[in-house]
Amino acid sequence: MSVLRVGIIGVGMMGADHAARVAHRSANAALVAIADPDQDRAARLAARFDGVRVISDPMELIADPQVDAVIIASPGSVHEDQVLACIVHRKYVLCEKPLTMDSASSLRLVEAEAVAGAPLLQVGFMRRFDPEYAQMKRVLDSGRLGRTLLLHNTHRNKSVPNPDFRSEMIVRDSLVHEVDVARFLFGQEITSITVLSPAPTSHALPGVADPQVSIFTMAGGGMVTSEVFCNCQVGYEVRCEAVAERGTLIAGRPQTGLYSTVAGAEHGSWGGEVHPDFTTRFARAYDLEVQSWIDASRRRQVVGPTSWDGYAATAVCTAGMQSLATGEPVTVDLADRTLVGA
Amino acid sequence: MSVLRVGIIGVGMMGADHAARVAHRSANAALVAIADPDQDRAARLAARFDGVRVISDPMELIADPQVDAVIIASPGSVHEDQVLACIVHRKYVLCEKPLTMDSASSLRLVEAEAVAGAPLLQVGFMRRFDPEYAQMKRVLDSGRLGRTLLLHNTHRNKSVPNPDFRSEMIVRDSLVHEVDVARFLFGQEITSITVLSPAPTSHALPGVADPQVSIFTMAGGGMVTSEVFCNCQVGYEVRCEAVAERGTLIAGRPQTGLYSTVAGAEHGSWGGEVHPDFTTRFARAYDLEVQSWIDASRRRQVVGPTSWDGYAATAVCTAGMQSLATGEPVTVDLADRTLVGA
Amino acid sequence: MSVLRVGIIGVGMMGADHAARVAHRSANAALVAIADPDQDRAARLAARFDGVRVISDPMELIADPQVDAVIIASPGSVHEDQVLACIVHRKYVLCEKPLTMDSASSLRLVEAEAVAGAPLLQVGFMRRFDPEYAQMKRVLDSGRLGRTLLLHNTHRNKSVPNPDFRSEMIVRDSLVHEVDVARFLFGQEITSITVLSPAPTSHALPGVADPQVSIFTMAGGGMVTSEVFCNCQVGYEVRCEAVAERGTLIAGRPQTGLYSTVAGAEHGSWGGEVHPDFTTRFARAYDLEVQSWIDASRRRQVVGPTSWDGYAATAVCTAGMQSLATGEPVTVDLADRTLVGA
Amino acid sequence: MSVLRVGIIGVGMMGADHAARVAHRSANAALVAIADPDQDRAARLAARFDGVRVISDPMELIADPQVDAVIIASPGSVHEDQVLACIVHRKYVLCEKPLTMDSASSLRLVEAEAVAGAPLLQVGFMRRFDPEYAQMKRVLDSGRLGRTLLLHNTHRNKSVPNPDFRSEMIVRDSLVHEVDVARFLFGQEITSITVLSPAPTSHALPGVADPQVSIFTMAGGGMVTSEVFCNCQVGYEVRCEAVAERGTLIAGRPQTGLYSTVAGAEHGSWGGEVHPDFTTRFARAYDLEVQSWIDASRRRQVVGPTSWDGYAATAVCTAGMQSLATGEPVTVDLADRTLVGA
Known about the structure:
Strand order of the largest sheet of chain A: 12-11-7-10-9-8-15
Largest sheet of chain A: 7 strands, mixed
Shape of chain A: globular
Number of domains of chain A: 2
Mean pLDDT of chain A: 95
CATH architecture of the largest domain in chain A: 2-Layer Sandwich
Order of helices and strands of chain A: EHEHEHEHEHEHEHEEEEEEEHHHE
CATH topology of the largest domain in chain A: Dihydrodipicolinate Reductase, domain 2
Strand content of chain A: 15-25%
Oligomer: homotetramer
């Protein structure tokens, strides 16, 4: 396959970002089609590129023989049908997280792919491609720090403008990244999750539990703490500290980037700017993720997070949303991986 | 009172450190007496200073009219009697943590001091005197970051040589510092504590839960996570991150101190040395604590952590040791502060 | 121009890196041809890509109508002829530094381009594309720190394996980057340069002045200090501190990247790995430089460092090599920019 | 000598700071007398301590048999006479820098002390007592980084309110610290100094060269660059980077202390406060310097920077003030150390 012809479904903030990435920053790929319920938005975006068709029906885009591979950046509620269509049409697909809205539907995708007989699906857990997270994985796997014991995650967003935002979304849409990071770095499943609700910030919508503190227990007995804070007012901050038997690692330490001192009214200050959002913090990770997906698709392979990774993360978050209601630990029940052929 | 004449009870690592501090690094104080069950150790230490008497019976040291104030660095199990004697003899006393072995005995000291009618007791929570913790308190209290929502603590020791070391000691002797930090920075009591036991490091004694992860709930609904790891093999690392409504603070960030790059076999490295133990990490805090105690005692005041602070910390740790057995949250029951006159 | 067809001349370390960049990591470009005196090396490299021709004569590559644009990564001594051929054939060209071996030859290229009547040449000063240097430029130009007063540069390489390495090369091949950075950040020409030779490291070849300390005076009176150290044994370290009237900026601070603590024989350590060489330190900058050059070439523009920038840097380094011999300041004589039409 | 009875001459900002240090933060010393031309200022300060006499004539204070040791914090122009009186009366003396106003007068003090037959004088180069500088010295002396090749110093003050401030004072009163640091860390004399004047900041007084860039050549061929900037508007920043054959060291890196993120109008920021002045940045160094001087004086020793160190620093600064006028290197002529008995 000389050049991978890519179609994108859903061109909100994330999908539009991917469109520019495929068209302007990726080798050996061409953006050929986009689909979005908002036809005007789709047309406006398509006009920014050469030779990109707007296709009204996402299923038509998937079925189009001129489309080799699909990026799904639509809302999670329509992922199941769209990914399934990709599998049916044997299209390589990069699906943004969450894979689907509950674990049963995610499992159906795992099974469908198993039936199809070839891996086709990569789930958009882009942190695995961030250079520091990737290096952390290599160092932990090298064994030179001994066994991994703990992870401590920090995940902060400046604010959530969505007036329909609910506590569960913090688990399903934000914490899901820490779920994948924990499974990735430990190389183990999560067996239990507790989601705690401290007194909320006054910047959260009424009734929304923000920030949240979560605890995962790993299959090997390791433990993971995560703070997710969606209205921290400052900016986007994502950090991960791994504690192993003979040392520790931190990815995403604060105070990176250009450093400045500045005169002040009274005291001068030192410091820099916090990332405004994930598009700048993980710009490199997204670029590497998409290029890696393009390269693998051209070789007819899947090298990133798999359908099973998407399913397992959904299952953990489903349990996490239950825990959120009570503050009690909830056991994660996963299907037998060997039975579903994953 | 021109010069404060200080006696020290217990001259193990901590007491010997305090002896040198009083004699060599503190203004307006004189080390005049030491007491220790190990008479040889006491004699050897006394010989390093001018005019320091060895008194075999700690109660005699406390009662001695030539001793104005006492530092208690003996094992926690004898603290109650020794502090009580100090109160009875109206001696200013700086007692190392833990105040006593259980909350009932600590409460008795609170009551005894109330009966005595004047504050005499300061508990050795020296982190309050660390410049970064102290500044953190000032910034949080200033309100310019809004209400405090969360604390995340890290507390690591290189190793524990004690062959009798047990899981409970991590709560009572180490986590007790995070208990005080949480109460200090929030300015609130802790209402509930959970102590979790991840799979232990292979460097811990058999049966010892190390590391531990703890969760405190504050009276105002705030939450505190703490990792305590007593056999991390690396060195001494103590860190505290406060998360408030409009910003965050970190005391004890990694990578402080002299920075170095060094040629290596393959890759060169950047970095520095981790503190070997608390005596170097908190050298300044201990100096400031003891000087502050000397100054206050000469003015017949107590300005550091009080008997109530010592009692409340003991009560939280007592509940924490219960939680350690089950991993379930345990409610902290405190006496009515107004009833005991504290 | 739909896809930019790129030919590369010289496929040593730098050229091979660019080949992979164009073929595997750049959008809207195709690597179509390479030329190198070492035919075997060229053939081996070409075999790693699809449809890349090996052309023995670089002049033939430049003239080839199937080649739209050329990257020159050959030794500096042959740059003049190759760049001139690109100008003659109206090919967009990205030429690695140094532009040429002396200022007279560089000036001839400036004049040739002026005669051609359209900008075609970009010089490979990739630091301008490094995110931190680029942000530094924006902040300094914003004026919110006031006028720029000083720059302090650090530029260290692990070692130089070349047995023919001479002191002048440190000026011409390494310091040339600081020369461009100074001109870029100040937006001014350099009027005088002093190159000092401290007692050399024992890791340098006999007779080679390494490290070197240089001082530039800018047209506006600002000053620049630079340490260049080519055998520092540690790794690759490049840093720039700008001092302005109301604040400072540092790009490339030490201690970036993944952070680790590790148990040691005696003292544990904190830190990370130093970049081994420029390919990792400036990986992002090279990617951005080449993508930007591809995009601009497709729009028939030049947006990076120009032929004049290449000439001016060469002129400063020529003066610097004179200064190296005496340690005395040498005035930089530049052609009249308006006369040469640059 | 049980308690060292200290008198202080000159109680401006520095002397008043030392008064509080001796009285409130130092062991085994008593502040007994102060002298200052401003009698009111002296009386007000004395009133803050117990038993401190105000003596109008500094020579009387030095001669007073109730005074064991003297701290001189008066203007440099009267140091020679006062130090000489201390030597004559065999009083241990800690004299703030600069030792005297020119090298001839400093040399007379070296000779006077030699005649007295015992070391009595310590010069107030307190950076030698800063924990990071002291550790840097130990690491360099250990030899594990190889021979020291270069130092790069940064020395910034927020502003200079003095309306009589002149360019020479930057050399004599500020750069003198870098002069001592260079001699201390290399363990060698400085043989030549160049002081360069870039275009000055608009915050400097008319005609004052600020910032300045200096170059020292060491006796062994090593080289030292120093930026001194007295009106940087931001705060107090002092940094030293040592470059050795197999690694580097940095003392006083930026971004130390309490770290904060704060919400902003647009972009949130990370960072902290810059030290306002030397009293906070070097608080610990001053405490350690004075305690060390007290301890040594009680043992009838001098352990800090000696009279020779003070003389050599003055000689270098004298040459530096000459260089400031021309920008040309000036050779430093030192007396023959063996001849003067130092």
